[in-house]
């Protein structure tokens, strides 16, 4: 089988395509024929060594993907050959990600892909959607799970609505009944955010974000999905409602923060840091189930018409796919591993 590996951290050029034997399936595992592999910024940070050094002699990149069950372990009863599935955290503390034709993975990391969802949708869930789900459910004021109606009556501010996590947060918040306000940096991204389902879109380069948000939500927003806390914290404190929550899901290297303690304190603001890999097991399972329910309802579609353009690469051009993510390609970068 074909697989992409790297044996040392570095730029996209460290990725190489090799031939490997198709792996056997131990108990508690299934083998998945990968159809589509998703590339996330976290995959590039791992490959570059920014987030961690090499844990194995060689590493197959990419956490997310979708495909078919190809074989099951002798003790596995819940899966049968041919079932369509999506995968999460496949390469976390494990040498095998989804940039290969066949992947053997513990059954916990395998989720049935609803019949109405494409492999493109399945490969776009994982890191972004599970992260977005936690940003909307970490607040002590609830809800601790999402479903239609769970956020009715609340307003959510999503910073960076044209990114993969922002896109998923818009879709999930809209599905759960929230009013969604989002910020973007261009008219093109504004259209994508509207396509994703945002009710109100603010171009932060040309508009007064605080004034617009205050006009739209005079009593404040209950939740803020935050992509750049250091840049936005003063704004966030201004527009958040008392007992609101700010959920931070990414970082800028070397970033430090001067905290406007008084504003946060007097409003009883909760700040959560959301790192999907180390999410508590019960919370991760709840996120997987909730995201899959939204997928089954048709709420997590991808493509330009749904706010997340797709850039496609074949497996042998995985290095180019990683480079595309690193240069900030708008939308989702996917790798076609098998014909489907």
Walk me through what this model shows.
GO terms for molecular function: mRNA 3'-UTR binding; NADPH binding; quinone reductase (NADPH) activity. This is NADPH:quinone reductase. Keywords: NADP. One of its GO terms (cellular component) is cytosol. With 340 residues, this protein is an alpha/beta fold. It folds into 2 domains: 2-124 and 308-336, Quinone Oxidoreductase, Chain A, domain 1 (Alpha-Beta Complex), CATH 3.90.180; 128-277, NAD(P)-binding Rossmann-like Domain (Rossmann fold, 3-Layer(aba) Sandwich), CATH 3.40.50.720. Helices cover 29% and strands 25% of the residues. The chain is built from 10 helices and 15 strands. The protein has helices at residues 41-48, 119-123, 126-137, 164-175, 187-196, 209-216, 229-239, 261-266, 281-296, 318-326; strands at 2-5, 16-19, 29-39, 64-72, 84-87, 102-106, 110-112, 155-159, 179-184, 200-203, 221-226, 240-248, 270-273, 310-314, 332-336. The strands form 3 sheets. Strands 3, 4, 5, 6, 7, 14 and 15 form a 7-stranded mixed sheet that branches. Helix 5 (187-196) links the parallel strand 9 and strand 10. The longest helix has 16 residues, at 281-296. The mean pLDDT is 96.
Give a nutshell description of this structure.
With 340 residues, this protein is an alpha/beta fold. The protein has helices at residues 41-48, 119-123, 126-137, 164-175, 187-196, 209-216, 229-239, 261-266, 281-296, 318-326, and strands spanning 2-5, 16-19, 29-39, 64-72, 84-87, 102-106, 110-112, 155-159, 179-184, 200-203, 221-226, 240-248, 270-273, 310-314, 332-336. The chain has 2 domains: 2-124 and 308-336, Medium-chain alcohol dehydrogenases, catalytic domain (Quinone Oxidoreductase, Chain A, domain 1, Alpha-Beta Complex); 128-277, Rossmann fold (3-Layer(aba) Sandwich).
């Amino acid at each position: 089988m074909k697989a992409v590996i790297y044996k040392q951290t570095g730029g996209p050029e460290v990725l190489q395509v090799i031939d490997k034997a198709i792996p056997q399936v131990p108990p508690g595992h299934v083998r998945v024929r990968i159809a589509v592999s998703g590339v996330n910024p976290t995959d590039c940070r791992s490959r570059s060594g920014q987030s961690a050094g090499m844990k194995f002699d060689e590493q197959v990149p990419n956490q997310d993907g979708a495909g078919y069950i190809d074989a099951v372990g002798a003790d596995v009863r819940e899966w049968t050959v041919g079932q369509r599935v999506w995968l999460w955290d496949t390469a976390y503390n494990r040498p095998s990600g989804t940039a290969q034709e066949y992947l053997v993975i513990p059954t916990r990391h395998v989720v049935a892909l609803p019949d109405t969802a494409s492999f493109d949708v399945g490969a776009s869930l994982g890191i972004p959607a599970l992260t977005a789900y936690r940003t909307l459910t970490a607040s002590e004021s609830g809800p601790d799970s999402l479903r239609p109606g769970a956020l009715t009556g609340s307003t959510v501010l999503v910073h960076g609505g044209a990114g993969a996590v922002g896109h998923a947060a818009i879709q999930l918040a809209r599905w759960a009944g929230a009013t969604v306000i989002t910020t973007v940096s261009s008219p093109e991204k504004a259209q994508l955010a509207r396509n994703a389902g945002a009710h109100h879109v603010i171009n932060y380069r040309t508009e007064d974000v605080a004034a617009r948000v205050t006009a739209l939500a005079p009593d404040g927003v209950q939740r803020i999905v935050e992509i750049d806390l250091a840049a936005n914290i003063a704004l966030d404190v201004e527009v958040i409602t008392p007992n609101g929550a700010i959920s931070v899901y990414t970082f800028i290297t070397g970033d430090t923060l001067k905290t406007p303690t008084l504003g946060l304190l007097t409003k009883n603001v909760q700040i959560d840091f959301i790192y999907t890999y180390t999410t508590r097991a019960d919370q991760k399972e709840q996120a997987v189930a909730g995201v899959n329910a939204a997928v089954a309802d048709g709420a997590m579609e991808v493509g330009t018409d749904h706010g997340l353009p797709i850039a496609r690469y074949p497996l042998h051009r995985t290095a180019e796919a990683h480079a595309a993510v690193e240069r900030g390609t708008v939308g989702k970068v996917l790798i076609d591993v098998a014909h489907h």
